[in-house]
Design a protein that fits this description.
about 35% strand, 5-stranded mixed sheet, translation regulation, Ribosom_S30AE_C, Double Stranded RNA Binding Domain, ribosomal small subunit binding, alpha+beta
Amino acid sequence: MQVTVKGKQLDVGDSLRTHVKDTLSALVGKYFGNPMEATVILSRDAHLYKADIQVHVGRGILLQSNAEATEPYPAFDEAADRVAKRLRRYKRRLKDHHNRATVADLPVTPARKYIIEAAADEADTLDDSGEDTAEALNGDAHQPIVVAEMQTNIEMLTVSEAVMRMDLADLPALMFRNRAHGGLNMIYRRPDGNVGWVDPTGAVPAARP
């Protein structure tokens, strides 16, 4: 597996770089014979060090984890331990997914995803006269501002596969097409620790070939 180690506000020495590559390769290699690639970003913010791990282990399977500590080694080790726990949790299902993916690939729906600027407090947008400056300039104070857009794919999954993908990638939510009927579904993390599942009533079944 190709492991890329990057530093932000931090000079990653040879010893730390070797530790990261050896640890991650051994960890992922226990579960996948031919993992694709991994990227580890080590950064420093004041007195804290942060490790962000991203591992592509197969088609559509992304593992993400991060951790912070007062030293770079413990930060990476904690993030790597979280990756290991998720791999152990889904070991059997990941192998089943890999075997199915080698037989036939399921269709995906190309889509665009956007990052919208967080809304400012209304008081922050008022000028001295009390007029909303954003509305005066743009004609609509409530029009969201898109700061980035990217290409993505909406995959055909079962609900349990979608939950696994969301957990492995440490995502707050995931949109997918339900393999049972082809309609768009969404799952998301609830504050109580459970997973919410949205399945719109009257979803249109996917056309059968």
